[in-house]
């Protein structure tokens, strides 16, 4: 009987080891496949020394990157500015810094094309990107153009104002010069459902706009100067970049409206509508004094890194799910008090 028990025990151990190492092998194989196919390229983690060079097909021709030709650097600005998975200051600055290092060092970058499709986003991030692009162009004395294919609103339009020219496709929308801070309040709903809230805080006005308790009269007064400051800055940037547009027009006529590309051209928001990407690329090359047959267009993105596959972006600290969970679990709701240059469609009655 002793021999039988030992045999069964050995068999169980052997089966467990086979199953365990089979699972480990499958997991390793999956990670290797993901790595080889480069699915991690969507990550927004930037390593300023590990960029892949992508050659956009702007006019139907395919290019092979060579380091001995002058080039135009294309930067894609798509999505919400400052949000998780969207446009970040770190990403743009890293691309600009890397454009003067490695294979691109020297004066190879002769112009920058911003490819824009954004509804706007955080005011701080929008202005940081605006100044990063503005400073780079000034320091290196190169032309910078924006091409809009979709939406260029609020913070996106503010960034576009850092460039020498703004062109758009026919179907694009441009504008929304305004600032907002958004709050919500569920205290009445909680009261009707019999849900109590007990918030403990220190500091005058710490819970002034808490969504879990009724707001006191003039509770939002401290945020008005913040909005006004950012709004005035936005107006100043637009009027300096677009001489045809006056501050009075922005405040009293155009406001936070968005306009189709042809109308945006008419009022001076952009320089032209109905353009294709290849046409704007050619115009930028001409402004940079490049031979049309002797330059290339290059875009950069972070290389895939193995550590990126271990991150669950869905549950990142900036994801809506995570923020909602924190709001429910925290005694004091987390509030994002940063003003937003964000386009919001008008409500219809």
Question: What this model shows, in words?
Answer:
This protein has 349 residues and is of the alpha/beta class. The protein has one domain (44-183, 220-305, 313-342): Alpha-Beta Complex (2-enoyl-CoA Hydratase, Chain A, domain 1), CATH 3.90.226. The protein is 38% helix and 16% strand. The strands form two sheets. Strands 1, 2, 3, 5, 6, 7, 8, 9 and 10 form a nine-stranded mixed beta sheet that branches. A two-stranded antiparallel ribbon has the order 4-11. Strand 5 (144-153), helix 4 and strand 6 (165-168) form a beta-alpha-beta unit. It is flat and about 75 Å long.
Please give a quick description of this structure.
With 349 residues, this protein is an alpha/beta fold. Helix content is 38%, strand content 16%. The model is unreliable at 38-50 and 312-337 (pLDDT under 50).
Question: What attributes characterize this protein structure?
Answer:
alpha/beta, 349 residues, single chain, 10 helices, two-stranded antiparallel sheet, flat, 2-enoyl-CoA Hydratase, Chain A, domain 1
């Amino acid at each position: 009987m002793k021999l039988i028990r030992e045999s069964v025990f050995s068999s169980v151990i052997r089966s467990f080891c086979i199953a365990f190492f089979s699972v480990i092998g499958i997991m390793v194989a999956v990670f290797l496949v993901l790595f080889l196919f480069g699915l991690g390229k969507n990550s927004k983690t930037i390593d300023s020394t590990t960029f892949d060079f992508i050659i956009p097909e702007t006019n139907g021709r395919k290019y092979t990157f060579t380091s001995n030709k002058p080039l135009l650097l294309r930067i894609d600005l798509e999505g919400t500015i400052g949000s998780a998975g969207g446009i970040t200051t770190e990403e743009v600055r890293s691309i600009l810094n890397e454009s003067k290092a490695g294979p691109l060092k020297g004066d190879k970058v002769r112009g920058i094309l911003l490819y824009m499709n954004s509804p706007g986003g955080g005011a701080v991030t929008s202005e940081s990107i605006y100044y990063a692009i503005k400073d780079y162009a000034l320091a290196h004395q190169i032309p910078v153009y924006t091409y809009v294919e979709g939406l260029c609103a609020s913070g996106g339009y503010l960034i576009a104002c850092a460039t020498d020219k703004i062109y758009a496709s026919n179907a694009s929308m441009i504008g929304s010069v305004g600032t907002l801070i958004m709050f919500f309040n569920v205290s009445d709903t909680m009261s009707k459902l019999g849900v109590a809230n007990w918030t403990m805080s220190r500091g005058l006005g710490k819970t002034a706009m808490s969504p879990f308790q009724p707001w006191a009269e003039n509770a939002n007064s401290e945020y008005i100067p913040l909005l006004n400051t950012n709004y005035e800055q936005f107006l100043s940037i637009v009027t300096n970049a677009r001489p045809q547009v006056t501050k009075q027009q922005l405040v009293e006529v155009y406001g936070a409206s968005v306009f189709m590309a042809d109308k945006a051209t008419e009022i001076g928001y952009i320089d032209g509508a109905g353009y294709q990407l290849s046409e704007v690329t050619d115009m930028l090359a001409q402004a940079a004094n490049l031979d049309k047959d002797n330059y290339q267009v290059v875009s950069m993105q972070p290389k895939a890194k193995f550590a990126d596959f271990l991150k669950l972006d869905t549950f990142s600290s900036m994801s809506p799910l995570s923020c909602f969970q924190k709001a429910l679990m925290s005694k004091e709701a987390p509030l994002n008090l940063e003003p937003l240059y964000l386009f919001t469609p008008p409500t219809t009655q």
